Amino acid sequence: MARVRIALCQLNPVVGDLDNNAAKVIEAVRRAEEQGADLAVFPELVLPGYPPEDLLVKPAFVEGNMAALEKVAAATGSCAAVVGYVDSDGDLYNAAAVAAGGKVHGSWRKQLLPNYGVFDEQRWFRPGSGEDRLFLVAGVRTGVVICEDAWSPSGPVARLGAGGAELIVVINASPYRAGALMERRRMLATRAADASTALVYVNLVGGQDELVFDGGSMVFDHHGSLVASLPQFEERVGLLDLELRPAYRKRLLDPRGRAAAEPIEAVVVSGAPAERTGSHEPVIAPAPSRAEEVYGALVLATRDYVEKNGFSDVLVSLSGGIDSSLVAVIAVDAIGAERVHGVLLPSRYSSKGSVDDAEDLVHRLGIEARAIPIEPAHSALMEMLAPSFEGRPHGLAEENLQARIRGTVVMGLSNEFGWLVLTTGNKSEMAVGYATLYGDMAGGFAVIKDVPKTLLYELCRYRNEAGSAEVIPEAVIVKPPSAELRPGQVDEDSLPPYEELDPILYGYVEEDRTISELVAEGHEAAVVRRVVDLVDRAEYKRRQAAPGPRVTSRAFGKDRRMPITNRFRGRSEPPGSSRQSGL
Question: Which one is catalytic: 9, 24, 44, 558?
Fold first, then answer.
């Protein structure tokens, strides 16, 4: 029985920060070697950061990434390191280098390139080809693959296992979405069991524009049992001692593909481990609830967007509603109360209850806030527009004027103080176009852009229960949602209840269900047609929205790329003719 000490290096790099990413990897290798590790495993493309997108067309970027790999390799000693980088030989490859003793001993080029959902790898990379290879690390026959390579049942993991691998290392940049962790766990357990090898999965962690990488690195034995895991949403270097039991007996009795199995010669990387003191027993991180998981993703995404883009502080417009309240709480958890600023922008229609709720939230969070009533600007603009609006009924233009005044004010504060404006629209609103261009959509980062309204309530309840004190006032959670742009207004005046709306949006947006399928599920036909029509017409608005973190199975933007000019669906009226489209 072999026993190998492995460092799972779940790091948070910054795309394009080649020198600092390399320094972070070198420090982790040093720590791993000091603690007697035989193998340190890093995420996919950890040196350039993921996804580098069209930075890859810049020769200096690719060359700099290769130079970073040379620095990392030169810093290795007895502990072998598996490091993600971009390889180049005229074409570009998503690759993993295996380094030890000051040099690179070989690499693996990703063979299966995802080109669906948020992935565009075929735009930049050529798939790896050629013979499979193993590396002899501390006496253990080790295979190295990259992310999607492990997703295929008949792919590289199966071949490497059949070729004699005792350990498979899978380096990853797997973006977060709610529920993905358990799906990965089931899939990876199957790969390990089918190949009769232990399997180490190390994932990237951190926010990168719309994507959040959740970490959650895992280790499985050759039966497919989970033996260790790291927490989600935390940068962490975790060590464990992994026992590798002989698996050849199981392979001899396994009829699947045995006749086609060919032994694979292993490249010697490092020798057998020396005697070491102490032990690092495997630990399995507790599985979070859905609300805890999503909330952690939003906090990490917000923190990294602020920090990685060099903003000192953030600004949130506080209406006293549930959306802005949750965004403010997430911001405080992400970067601290001293860096979060609130602004109350009451209009002639703002209720006293909403103003009181916003002030209560400010007190509970301990953030700096100011009140700037918008009535002077509202009155002046209504007077300016009166000749043009004369004889026409009061409607959306007048209501949305208030949102646009607020957008002007928050952007003015942003320009003056350099604060990043966090917008407060949720996925349900963004889906049906109930957000105002150049108004409440004005800002730099849309924290809850991919959070449906019903999930938003769940997150508020979770946060209040998770802390030492209730931070979001109960009055905010229980009152009917309203934009408060006219007297007595509530969202249900013009939308179905969110408990009815969100399932329709989930079916249409995330599962591509047709109107007839949604009606067959029990939704009212007229309601479904209206919701679908609103979603289709609002595409032009969503294109102009700030980026925000993806937490569902299909977010607007990278996931769902619909043409703005689109007559595929029949509508009740020609595109753009409805006044509702001017929201």
Answer: 44
User: What are 71's two structure tokens?
Assistant: 């620095």
Q: Of the ranges 253-267, 368-382, 458-472, 506-520, which one carries the lowest mean pLDDT score?
A: 253-267
Q: How confident is the model at residue 263 (pLDDT cuts 50, 70, 90)?
A: confident
Per the rule left: phi > 0, alpha: psi between -120 and 50, beta: everything else, 367 is beta
Instruction: Tell the residue number behind the tokens 């350990």, with chain if given.
Output: 167
Predicted structure pTM score: 0.93
- Residue tagged active-site, from 110, 308, 449, 558: 110
> Is residue 163 helix, strand or coil?
coil
Topology match between the domains 2-270 and 290-571: no
Whether 103 is catalytic: no
Residue ranges covered by each domain of the chain: 2-270, 290-571
110 catalytic per annotation: yes
β-pair partners for 80: 39
Task: Check residue 556 and report its DSSP letter.
Answer: B
pLDDT tens for each residue of 294-314 = 999 999 999 999 999 999 999
How many CB atoms lie under 10 A from the CB of residue 49? Answer: 25
Kindly give the residue spans of alpha helices, DSSP state H, lying in 163-309. 180-195, 248-253, 290-308
**In angstroms, rounded to a whole number, what is the distance separating the alpha carbons of residues 507 and 510?**
6
Q: How far apart are CA 235 and CA 28, in angstroms?
A: 11
Q: Which residue type, as a one-letter code, is found at position 580?
A: Q
Structure tokens at 102: 């000051």
Burial of 235 (C-beta count, 10 Å sphere; 0-12/13-18/19+)? middle
Which one of the listed residues 9, 79, 147, 460 is annotated catalytic? 147
Tokens of 577: 């003719």
pLDDT confidence of residue 1: 67
**Residues paired with 228 in a beta bridge:** 219
Nearest to 206 by CA among 295, 305, 314: 305
Which CA distances in Å does 229 have to 33, 212, 236, 244, 294? 20, 19, 11, 17, 19
Task: Tell which residue, 12, 52, 53, 9, has the closest CA to residue 303.
Answer: 12
Q: Which CATH number fits domain 2-270: 1.10.10.10, 3.60.110.10, 3.30.530.20, 3.10.150.10?
A: 3.60.110.10
More reliable by pLDDT, 551 or 467: 551
Looking at beta carbons, which pairs linking 292-296 to residues 24 or more positions away fall under 8 Å?
A: 292/462, 292/466, 293/178, 293/181, 293/214, 293/232, 294/178, 294/451, 294/455, 294/459, 294/551, 295/330, 295/459, 295/462, 295/463, 295/466, 296/214, 296/232, 296/233
Question: Residue 35 carries which DSSP code?
Answer: T
Decide if 44 is catalytic: yes
> Could you read off the pLDDT of 361-405 as tens digits, one per residue?
999 999 999 999 999 999 999 999 999 999 898 888 888 899 999
359-365: long-range contacts, CB 8 A cutoff, minimum separation 24: 360/473, 360/475, 361/318, 361/320, 361/325, 361/328, 361/471, 361/472, 361/473, 361/476, 362/318, 364/469, 364/470, 364/471, 364/472, 364/473, 365/328, 365/329, 365/332, 365/337, 365/340, 365/471
How far is residue 26 from each of residues 52, 75, 214, 447, 533, measured CA to CA in Å?
Answer: 21, 6, 22, 33, 53
CATH topology of domain 290-571: Rossmann fold (3.40.50)
